[in-house]
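Let us practice reading a record.
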Amino acid sequence: MGWTVYNSDGQILQGSSTLADDAVTTAKILDANVTLAKMATNSVDSNQYVDGSIETVHIDDLQVTGAKMANDTITEGKLDVSNAPQNGYFLQAQSGEGGGLTWAAASSGPSQAVKADIEAETNQDTYIPPDLMKHHPGVAKFWVDIDHSSGAPVIDGDYNVGSLDDNGTGNTDINYTVAFANANYAVVAMGSYTGAYVNIIGEAVQYHTTSYQRILCIRNSASNAGVNINGAFVAGFGDH
């Protein structure tokens, strides 16, 4: 026959009978008396925690890894930013001992170059817009493809050429839409003619002005006679 010892409050202090499985309930366990030694390995899982039972003080530093975080969990309020956001601003890293982030206005970028700086090829943090690219010294200020095959000169393609004047066989004035700043500019040319070599030369200096250039297409022969050719390709470089 088994025996049991009770205290004055009716609690069991000692007994001869063995407890049955699952006989010890939460109410029978004294507070703060379940030590690690009494717990089996891996005995505590998520089922043993109720919602909201894990507080900040229970999480060790640097223990919440990326794998533990759900997508889209980091909001703007969770970032360590030194100032309030504004529309159009971006997050910028701060230097210095404190580090961190700050909302900063985006740079407006480089300013537009002016004509004088483009012509001088000034080394500066600016940009050349399309309408001012023509002022760069390495860009042709005019070019033209002239066809004389039908007699009178015809423009097949051009830039900054307003018109052509026909002065006779192979002799043509090229009139610019926008004049050069001075007559110190260079003209280059080549010709295309079926069955013979052709030279294209610039006429005397009085025909090389800020507003036009005269060219003469001549056959490479003893007579150096003028000739109307299929294509005269001419371009000029200088300052506008």
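A brief commentary: The first strand starts at residue 4 and ends at 6.
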